[in-house]
Structure formats: C-alpha cells, structure tokens
Design brief:
One of its GO terms (molecular function) is phosphatase activity. By secondary structure, this protein is α/β, with parallel strands linked by helices. Helix content is 39%, strand content 11%. Bound molecules: 2-acetamido-2-deoxy-beta-D-glucopyranose (10 copies).
Length: 493
C-alpha cells in the first residue's frame, strides 16, 4: 500500500513542475521508428544484433529525456514520468522478430525499471512481493497487420498486402529507366561477384534486380566483419554506388507521384497518426487518452510518407534509405499561455502539429530535425489544417483500404461490392477499381514471371518467402482480371 501511494506521488509531482521554462505544452506524440542494426536479409531469418539493440535503446533514452521524465525538454502534458501508465502509451509493430524486439528495446529505455523501493507490493496477508529484474516495466507491443515479416522479405512491397500497391510497384520493373539502369550497371555488379558469391549470388543474379539485397548484405558485412575477402573491390566510390543504386530502386518501389497507391504504407501511417492524435484531443475532458504512440516498421514506410508529404521538395536526401533506428515524430502542442487541464483544454484552433525526423539513432548530439510538410515552408500546422492535409492522402478505414487496394477477399469481402464505385480520392488509379483488366498490362505479368524466376534462381535460404510473395502477386493478378471485370477471361493474362 505504501509503495502504491509513493508511486502516485512520484507520478503527480513532476507534472506540476513541468513546462516552467516555456509557454508551450506538448499534448501528444506519434512516432514511427525503424529497427536497429540487424543481420542481413540474404541469411533470413534476420535478427536484431547487440548493436541494433543498443541503437533502439539509445533512441528510447533520448525520447524519454525529450517527452517523459521529470526534466524532459518537451514533456508531454500529464504523462507519467517513471511508472508506465498503459493508457498513455501505445506501442506497435508488425509480426516480425526484428521489429518486435526493436520495439521492446526502445520501451525498456522509455520506461526503465522502477528500481528498489518502487518495485514492491504488499499483499493482503502482509507479505511483501518484489517484482523481478529491479522492477522492469512490462509494456505490451501490439501487432499491426501491414508489414509482417518485412525484415525477412526482400520484396518489401508484398508485406503491404495491398494488391494495387504491389501491382504499381511492379510497374517500375518495366519502365525504360529501370531497363537502362539494369543494363548500364550489369558490369558493375558482375565485378562484385568475388565478394557477394559467398551470399549465393552468381552471374545471373548479381544485377540491379537485387540491388537492395546486395547492398544490405555488404552493409551488414562492413559493419560486422573484421575482414571481408576481396574487400579491395569495395572502394569508397563503389560503396557509394552500391548504396545509391539500392536507394534508387527502393525509392521507385515505394513512391511514385502519379500512382499514390504505391505509397500505401505512408497513406495508412498518415491515418494512424491523425487517428491517434485526434483521440488524444477527443479525450481532452478527461485527459485519459493515449499520449505517446510508437510504431516500428520498415524503411519503405518512411519513403512512402516522405513522398506523400512532399518532403522531397525540400531535400533530395529524402529519396535515400533511412538509416537503422531512424524515427519520424509528429508532435501535437499548444502555445496558449493558460495551463492545460482537463477543464481548460485548448480548443483545436490553438493546437498545432510539427514534424521531426532523425536519420538514425536520435541522441542529444544528433537530435531529430524539424521539417516543413506538404510542400510548404510551414513548420507548424494548425490542427484542422494538419488533419485536412493529411487526409488528402491518408487511408484510414478498412473499406477505404480495400477500395484503394482493389482487394476483394478476406477482410475485404464485405466491401467487395462497393469496391468498384467507392473510389477513394487518395488513389489516382480509380479506373482500375472495378478490376478492369486493362489496368494490368501483359508486360507487367512478364515481369512478375521474371521476378519469380529470379527468386528461384537466387535459391537462398529464406528466399522462399520472396518466391512465395511473388507467386501470390501473380495468382491474385489472375483473379483480379477474371473476377470483377466479368468477361475478361484468363486467356488475356
Ligand atoms: C537468427 O536467429 C535464429 C534463431 O534464433 C537463427 O536460427 C538464425 O540463424 C539467426 N540468423 C542469423 C542471420 O544469424
Ligand atoms: C500470502 O499470500 C501469498 C500469495 O497468495 C502466499 O504465497 C504466501 O505464502 C502468503 N503468506 C502467508 C504468511 O500466509
Ligand atoms: C511513375 O511510374 C510510371 C510507371 O508506372 C513511370 O512511367 C513514371 O516514370 C514514374 N514516375 C516517376 C516520377 O518516377
Ligand atoms: C526493357 O527491356 C526488355 C528486354 O530486355 C524489353 O522487352 C522491354 O520492352 C524494355 N522495356 C522498356 C520500357 O524499355
Ligand atoms: C561476414 O561474415 C559472415 C559470418 O562469417 C559471413 O557469412 C558473411 O559472408 C561475411 N560477409 C561478407 C560481406 O564477407
Ligand atoms: C476525431 O474524433 C472525433 C471524436 O471521436 C470524431 O468525431 C472525429 O471524426 C475525429 N476526426 C478525425 C479526423 O478522425
Ligand atoms: C539519411 O542517411 C542516408 C545515408 O546516410 C542518406 O543517403 C539519406 O539521404 C539521408 N536522408 C535524409 C532525409 O537526409
Ligand atoms: C502559437 O504558434 C503558432 C504557430 O507557430 C503561431 O502562429 C501563434 O501565433 C502562436 N500563438 C501564441 C499565443 O504564441
Ligand atoms: C545461379 O545460382 C542458382 C542457384 O542458386 C542456379 O540455379 C543458377 O543456374 C545459377 N546461374 C548461373 C548463371 O550460374
Ligand atoms: C490483397 O491482395 C493481395 C494480392 O491478391 C494479397 O496478397 C493480399 O493478401 C490481400 N490482402 C488482404 C488483406 O487480403
């Protein structure tokens, strides 16, 4: 009993002391976070390394000192500083060992063990029980549907599970830009064979097709291996080019200005941000809503969001692959001078949102940087304005998702009938919503075939997932062509 009231006191005190230095009050935060350092995808299943654990833990420490603890620089109004209040914190990650473990590592630092004194409980019969591990705090990590298995999967877009998004990404493989790069870099990749053959690449698979896998394998090797055979081939220029090619390929798979459905990861994230922060505002009267949410996910969602929110207009760097343990943050705050209380919660016209991004582990020395969004010069958006701008590309409900993705089975079955007419303003390819087969070019089908072949050729441990992912695409493609179009037979495809 004693320990409980001590805890309550600990929780209450700092809230009173907070925000003395600034008239600004942070009301809620949504964060999207990449995993830390991991093993290479070619040797799936991937695992978070000690280094990766350290990275996400360090990021957690930084954000604790920014948002949570008594002396936090941007302390979130009313957040429990030491002992986690599960109503206030929401953590999520797809079903994926690297991402789930990254989330757990981050949370350990966000709310460290409560320590001696606060880690005991007195039972009804007088027995005092001490919690394990110095009062280690257990915080559940919920699963999100999209992105499962992404760290084992070379074909990241398949983990979106969105039919039209996969289709759109695949279209990149039949552009002349892709073709040109494939042929102009053939020799470059062949020269890497002495190094990458250890990972199973051979003359037919050492190409731009595998730009990301090759980059990933060498990147991990350069971090972890004291010696790399034939490392003389890895001159700084070559290393830069390996990265640049992978980044080009992955960017084009994640975002395309004329087919926003390709960026479905960013579109669903946009909605998650708005819904979470909106719920914080909606619970104003009681201040019981969530205050801090963190979702772990793959670099592809960063790219998708960067594209949709027009961050590339500011800086070309946003087309790069974000580093391990990167984080994007949406901070919702008010700058009204009156203290924020349940009965005196700011009205939405006095609530603003700003966006910050850390390209790699956030620390005091390398804090996240604030960027303007939506192709404007604006660093802060009034809440209603923020919501309406995010909603221009967000996909929030299952119905919207099914319609935009053109999925009609499984969770989408209830929405299948309206899939053709319920066009979402966030997609530019509504013409295909009816499953009309003219959206599916035979050429693309050929590329799918090529990709399957590629995966088979690679034939590495763990690439079964890649093969499987691609086969699914191709099979569903057939169904899309037959199904809703009604009349277009299999023959066409
Ligand atoms: C990851 O861990 C699993 C078991 O924990 C192991 O089988 C696998 O080989 C590890 N992967 C790598 C690349 O070390
Ligand atoms: C008190 O209750 C706990 C949990 O039920 C039990 O393990 C313990 O033996 C009890 N102690 C005494 C002195 O009865
Ligand atoms: C968008 O994708 C299409 C093919 O799907 C391609 O022709 C076009 O060049 C892409 N746009 C950009 C800006 O990459
Ligand atoms: C790409 O190259 C293939 C053959 O390698 C060719 O069939 C296809 O037409 C080319 N596509 C474009 C858009 O250049
Ligand atoms: C790094 O070392 C691991 C383990 O010995 C090995 O499997 C891998 O091929 C090496 N990577 C490179 C790029 O040499
Ligand atoms: C915000 O929440 C309120 C109350 O739950 C709801 O009526 C409103 O539609 C939500 N707005 C958005 C943009 O989600
Ligand atoms: C993040 O870092 C990577 C690698 O250092 C770089 O290529 C990329 O452009 C950076 N992204 C941004 C937005 O600066
Ligand atoms: C609050 O911040 C917004 C956005 O930066 C600004 O336009 C407004 O003037 C500020 N209000 C006060 C009271 O400081
Ligand atoms: C490349 O390796 C795969 C097995 O991993 C093999 O099936 C294929 O024939 C090889 N290709 C060449 C050109 O050696
Ligand atoms: C949507 O369709 C794609 C391709 O047909 C499929 O791989 C994916 O599992 C579907 N997603 C859901 C949620 O049913």
């Amino acid at each position: 009993m004693l320990s409980l009231s001590t805890t309550a006191l600990l929780a209450a005190l700092p809230a009173v002391l907070a925000q003395t230095s600034s008239s600004e009050t942070v009301l809620g935060v949504y964060m999207f976070h990449r995993h830390g350092d991991r093993t290479p995808k070619v040797f799936a299943p991937t695992n978070l390394t000690d280094l990766g654990y350290r990275e996400v833990y360090t990021s957690g420490q930084y954000y604790r000192s920014r948002y949570i603890d008594d002396t936090a620089t941007f302390r979130i109004e009313g957040i429990s500083p030491d002992m986690v209040n599960e109503n206030q914190i929401q953590a999520s990650a797809p079903v994926d060992n690297v991402l789930q473990n990254s989330a757990a590592g981050f949370l350990q630092a966000l709310y460290p063990p409560v320590g001696a004194g606060a880690d005991t409980e007195t039972l009804g019969n007088g027995t005092v029980v001490t919690a394990p591990m110095n009062g280690f705090q257990l915080i559940p990590v919920n699963t999100v549907e999209s992105g499962s298995g992404s760290e084992n999967d070379a074909w990241l877009q398949s983990t979106s599970s969105c039919y039209k998004s996969e289709l759109s990404s695949n279209e990149y493989f039949v552009t002349s830009a892709y073709n040109d790069t494939l042929s102009s870099t053939r020799e470059f990749y062949q020269k890497l064979l002495p190094i990458i053959s250890q990972a199973g690449f051979n003359a037919s698979t050492a190409t731009f097709d595998n730009a990301y896998l090759i980059f990933d394998y060498l990147n991990v090797g350069r971090i972890h291996n004291a010696t790399i055979p034939h490392s003389n081939l890895l001159t700084p220029e070559v290393v830069t080019q390996i990265y640049g090619l992978a980044a080009t390929q992955q960017w084009n798979l994640a975002y395309n200005a004329s087919e926003t459905i390709r960026a479905v990861g960013g579109a669903t994230l946009g909605s998650q941000v708005v819904q979470f922060l909106n719920a914080t505002v909606a619970s104003a009267g009681s201040l019981t809503g969530g205050k801090f949410a963190v979702q772990f996910g793959a670099y592809g969602s960063f790219s998708s969001f960067f594209g949709l929110a027009d961050l590339i207009a500011i800086n070309d760097g946003f087309t790069g692959i974000t580093n391990y343990a990167s984080s994007m943050v949406w901070e919702m705050f008010t700058n009204t001078s009156a203290p924020v209380t349940a009965s005196n919660y700011p009205s939405t016209k006095d609530i603003y949102v700003r966006f910050l991004y850390s390209n790699g582990t956030a620390t005091d020395a390398t804090p996240p940087i604030q960027y303007p969004l939506f192709g404007t010069n604006q660093m802060e958006f009034q809440w209603d304005d923020f919501v309406s701008r995010m909603n221009r590309f967000s996909i929030g409900t299952t119905g919207q998702w099914c319609s935009a993705c053109g999925n009609t089975t499984g969770i989408c079955e209830p929405y299948a009938d309206s899939a053709g007419s319920g066009s979402s303003s966030s997609t530019t390819d509504d013409g295909r919503s009816g499953g009309c087969s003219n959206g599916i070019s035979p050429a693309v089908n050929g590329v799918i075939g090529a990709m399957v072949t590629l995966a088979v050729v690679l034939g590495l441990e763990g690439l079964a997932m890649l093969v499987f992912g691609l086969r699914v695409v191709s099979k569903k493609r057939l169904r899309g062509g037959n199904g809703a179009a009604g009349g277009n037979g299999e023959a066409k495809l």
